[in-house]
Design brief:
455 residues, alpha/beta, Rossmann fold, Dihydrodipicolinate Reductase, domain 2, Alpha-Beta Plaits, six-stranded parallel β-sheet, 14 helices, 26% strand, binds NADP nicotinamide-adenine-dinucleotide phosphate
């Protein structure tokens, strides 16, 4: 016998999820990196939506000279000339600052934060000079500052130091962080060109600015070093505290002598934590030819880190360029967007790896106390006793010689004398070089390059 059927009941439907609203982005600056960012946004739109559960939308683009780019979906309705009104629009979630420079980037970032927007920037100059103010404002408001693209371009070094290496105590950071200088030095080394020629070639190839000062005098690397020091050692550092020396005075002759001694010359950004005393310096450095950093050529960047527990590790890749840099900007946007899509604010972790009140000012070791090995070159008149006179001044200043190289005896009036020294404090070296420069048998100023033998 058939069982009587239970009366039909309407089963309740599962609650329908409200559609997740798009994450809206205001872009400040649609130049090299900005355009790359929009390109990536369009190219990977479906993947981003799957990752986030929400779509990314462009709310507006501020740029003083931008024309519509239909293939990137930048119509004239999206373009404004001035970022001030754009960053405060209620529908904007994230402001991506790619103007570069200090102002109006600083004011707009602060206004965006005051209006409750998270900020992403690639601007190392801005963060190195005004970081305390901008990171402070973000922390106070519980908002995020993404700055992955500001150091190493496409090399994800910010996240690596802040998150992947957070469990270790870092001791030293050695960075090739300026692609312009690295390209110029590679051209000098590989093509045997003098500095001025190599710079002109980099400018023709778009690897150096018309005014290359910020790059070739080491200031850009110093800005980046400030951020690396904070992330690695948990202290605040300002660019004026970084000893900064660029590559202008390097000659092809010294690069060739360095090679003969088994070294490559690189512009290194170096930071060490000597039990609380921080070394922070940017200068041309001789690196053993067998070391990984010596093989980093052209516009590539690499950051070599030494930690107590992990030991050595190196992070390498495209240090600049439209699409590599755009990937780093996008990584920040996605991280923030993920939080926004889940209804949270901020990035969930302090931007610099430590809460702002826990970041102390760096106690920087004076350059005079820094100990290095050195390459020295003197142009000596070819007379008996010259080597002895130089060696005796070095000896009186506590500097001992590892090796001597002498070239071109005979026809010339002066000949280069090249010496490699053992470790000595910078103070001693300067005192010795002043005395040697005063010798009648030495012409011109002595040349020195610091050597980094052990990492
Ligand atoms: N390029 C790279 O490979 C790279 C790598 C790492 C980090 N970065 C950083 O990324 C940022 C952007 O660099 P970028 O190479 O993309 O620069 P860019 O090509 O010069 O682009 C900047 C854009 O913003 C516009 N702009 C600047 N200030 C403005 C203002 N006050 N009002 C309206 N428009 C303004 C510029 O217009 P105009 O052209 O008319 O001035 C330009 O279209 C910088 O902080 C840079 O240091 C760049």
């Amino acid at each position: 016998m058939a069982r009587p059927r239970a009366p039909r009941r309407n089963l309740p439907l599962p609650p329908r999820k409200p559609p997740v609203k798009p994450i809206r982005i205001a872009l400040l600056g649609c130049g090299t990196v900005g355009e790359g960012f929009v390109r990536l946004m369009r190219r990977n739109a479906a993947m981003f939506e799957r990752r986030l559960g929400a779509s990314l939308e462009l709310a507006g683009v501020a740029d003083r000279s931008l024309k519509p780019i239909p293939e990137l979906g930048i119509g004239k309705e999206l373009i404004v000339r001035d970022g001030a009104a754009l960053v405060e629009r209620p529908e904007v979630d994230i402001v991506v600052e790619l103007f570069g420079g200090h102002e109006p980037a600083r004011t707009l970032a602060l206004r965006a934060l005051a209006a409750g927007k998270d900020v992403v920037t690639a601007n190392k100059a801005l963060l190195a000079e005004h970081g305390a103010e901008i990171f402070g404002a973000a922390a106070k408001a519980g908002l995020a500052i993404g700055f992955e693209a500001s150091v190493g371009g496409g090399v994800p070094i910010i996240r690596t130091l802040r998150e992947a290496l957070a469990g270790d105590r870092q001791r030293a950071v050695y960075g090739i962080v300026n692609g312009t200088c690295n390209s110029i030095l590679s051209t000098m080394t590989d093509a045997g060109r003098e500095f001025a020629d190599a710079l002109a070639e980099a400018q023709r190839a778009g690897l150096a600015e018309a005014d290359p000062t910020l790059d070739i005098d080491g200031h850009d690397a110093a800005h980046k070093l400030c951020l690396l020091v904070t992330l690695a050692f948990g202290v605040r550092l300002e660019p004026r505290q970084v000893y900064t020396e660029g590559i202008r005075r390097l000659t092809l002759a010294d690069i060739n002598f360095a090679r003969e001694l088994g070294y490559a010359v690189k512009l290194l950004a170096i930071a060490k934590d000597d039990d609380g005393a921080i070394e922070a310096r940017v200068h041309p450095t001789m690196v053993p030819a067998r070391h990984l950093l010596a093989g980093v050529s052209g516009a590539y960047n690499a950051i070599f880190i030494h930690g107590d527990a992990l030991g050595s590790s190196m992070y390498f890749g495209q240090g600049a360029g439209q699409m590599p840099t755009a990937t780093a900007v996008m990584a920040d946007v996605l991280e923030i967007a993920r939080h926004r899509a889940a209804g949270a604010r901020g990035a969930g972790a302090p931007a610099l790896g430590y809460p702002m009140p826990h970041l102390k000012r760096a106690r920087v070791k004076p350059m005079d106390d820094v100990v290095c090995e050195y390459y020295l070159r003197f142009m000596a008149r070819d007379r008996p006793g010259v080597l002895g006179a130089i060696a005796s001044i070095l000896g009186r200043n506590g500097i001992s010689i590892v090796s001597v190289l002498q070239h071109g005896r005979g026809v010339e009036t002066t000949v280069p004398v090249i010496m490699r020294t053992h470790e000595a404090p910078e103070r001693n070296l300067k005192r010795a070089l002043r005395a040697i420069g005063g010798l009648k048998m030495v012409a011109g100023d002595p040349v020195y390059i610091r050597i980094q033998e052990r990492f």
